[in-house]
């Protein structure tokens, strides 16, 4: 073909092919994916505590963790407690039912001596095998306790801890971190729940000690007290039954050994000359008992013991009185 240098054409074509091949090769190097970086991710799957009708309860933080590292790993998983729901504070979380609230707290141990706090998180050591996307699940227990000195109206009480955090604890630290290098956790909300029933408590006082008295004494008296605490609006009635079973509160003292004397006594309310105090009572009818209505605080009821005569064998006399609280 006149006017064309075929050798030059072949060289030019080959050079262009070499450039194209080089460009494709370079492009392949630039587009090749980088090696995946190691990573650990943990999240909670369930969290909460239900006291039921008890003063204490056990809850748990259920979790799962994923590992993309190509080697076995061990780390300290931690859980930091979040912000309590209103009207609670970090120092005193509170459960709420309508306008009523109940103080409680969370602890790391069953004895409730270690409070779960920002600088005292839940912790658990987790070990995971080397695998791409391997998963480990587990559960961390915690313990709750209601404030025993509070008595509130019956109902279902609930509360939350917002923005609680599952994360990782660096060596030598007490601060739970949601992100630590290639380790990542997450925030979550946790709920608490308790059921309060019409539960009253009665405390029997110290023995009614009439002291040391001569045989010629008459109309001897002594006293003690009974304390009752009931939820607000809860009516109650207290009945007293001496060991001889008298429904009218007319008991008998017993001596020691072979002494068969049984000095009589009478239980009374209000004063030494007040009404007899027996056990014919309930919340619908006071009868010969003593009645009241709870308001969440302690109510004290005085018990008086009277003895008309002490013409009996010298001895130490005593009796046991049963206290029955109806509510």
Automatic annotation (TrEMBL):
Lineage of the organism: Bacteria, Pseudomonadati, Pseudomonadota, Alphaproteobacteria, Sphingomonadales
Q: Which organism is it from?
A: Altericroceibacterium endophyticum
Q: Which residues cross the membrane?
A: 12-32
Q: Coiled-coil annotation: which residues?
A: none
Q: Which residues form the Spore coat protein U/FanG domain?
A: 44-159, 188-324
Transmembrane helix recorded as keyword: yes
- Name of the protein described by the UniProt record: Fimbrial major subunit CsuA/B family protein
What PANTHER family is this protein classified in? EXPORTED PROTEIN, PROTEIN U-RELATED
Task: List keywords of the entry alphabetically.
Answer: Membrane, Transmembrane, Transmembrane helix
- Kindly give the InterPro entries that the UniProt entry links to this protein: Spore_coat_component (IPR053167), Spore_coat_U/FanG (IPR007893)
């Amino acid at each position: 073909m006149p006017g064309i240098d075929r050798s030059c054409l072949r060289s030019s074509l080959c050079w262009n092919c070499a450039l194209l091949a080089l460009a494709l090769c370079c492009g392949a190097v630039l587009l090749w994916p980088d090696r995946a970086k190691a990573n650990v991710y943990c999240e909670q799957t369930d969290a909460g505590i239900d006291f039921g009708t008890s003063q204490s309860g056990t809850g748990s933080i259920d979790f799962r963790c994923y590992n993309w590292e190509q080697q076995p790993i061990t780390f300290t998983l931690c859980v930091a407690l979040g912000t309590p729901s209103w009207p609670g504070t970090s120092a005193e979380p509170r459960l709420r039912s309508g306008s009523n609230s109940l103080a409680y707290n969370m602890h790391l141990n069953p004895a409730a001596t270690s409070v779960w706090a920002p600088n005292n998180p839940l912790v658990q050591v987790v070990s995971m095998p080397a695998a791409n996307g391997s998963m480990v699940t587990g559960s961390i227990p915690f313990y709750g306790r209601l404030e025993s000195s509070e008595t509130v109206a019956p109902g279902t009480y609930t509360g939350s801890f917002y923005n609680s955090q599952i994360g990782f604890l660096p060596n030598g630290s007490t601060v739970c971190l949601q992100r630590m290098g290639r380790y990542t956790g997450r925030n979550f909300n946790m709920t608490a729940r308790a059921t309060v029933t019409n539960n009253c408590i009665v405390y029997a006082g110290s023995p009614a000690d009439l002291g040391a008295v001569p045989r010629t004494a008459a109309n001897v008296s002594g006293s003690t007290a009974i304390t009752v605490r009931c939820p607000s609006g809860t009516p109650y009635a207290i009945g007293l039954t001496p060991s001889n079973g008298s429904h009218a509160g007319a008991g008998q003292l017993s001596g020691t050994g072979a002494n068969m004397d049984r000095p009589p006594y009478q239980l009374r309310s209000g004063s030494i000359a007040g009404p007899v105090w027996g056990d014919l009572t309930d919340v619908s009818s006071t009868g010969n008992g003593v009645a009241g209505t709870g308001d969440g605080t302690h109510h004290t009821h005085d018990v008086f013991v009277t003895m008309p005569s002490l013409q009996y064998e010298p001895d130490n006399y005593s009796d046991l009185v049963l206290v029955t609280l109806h509510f």
